[in-house]
Amino acid sequence: MGHAGRERAAAGFSGGGGVLVDGEAEWHVVYRFASEGSALAWEKSTSRAQWDARLEGIAREAERRRVRGARAWFDAQTLTPAPPAPPSKWKLWFVNMSAVFPPVLLFNLTVLPYLGDLNALFRTLLLCLCVTALVTWILMPRLQRFFRKWLYPSLQALRGRHKRRTT
């Protein structure tokens, strides 16, 4: 209802529009204008400001993109989203320490006392082989799942937004 009236108002600036829904939670409002000047006139118009005020609280602008030609707009929609930013170094350090410290301590308390006669090089190699295997295949996958929301909060916020709107 609100978008249709806004589209009619935009048509008065040698333009028009339409709404596309992606099936999840995002609505894409597409305005097309005969010229760059018409688009700028619409953006600066009091009519648009009035429609923005009417739609406040109902819809929120998340992103704005300007392209020339319909093909460019649709091509831009097919690009894969940017990957989330990597976690900070101290968070990675904490998760790694949480994965490495327990098996090293356990190995030192249970296995190394029985290997005292073994060459230090072979003891260290055995420790590294066992701990690396435990950390790689057992501990890190579980810790990464456990700390996922803490390590990647921006990704979780995006996923949570879609879940809230679609349920």
UniProtKB/TrEMBL annotation:
Domain of life: Bacteria
InterPro entries: ABM_predict
Transmembrane segments: 93-115, 121-140
UniProt keyword annotations, A-Z: Membrane, Transmembrane, Transmembrane helix
Keyword presence, Transmembrane: yes
Protein name per the record: ABM domain-containing protein
Originating species: Streptomyces lomondensis
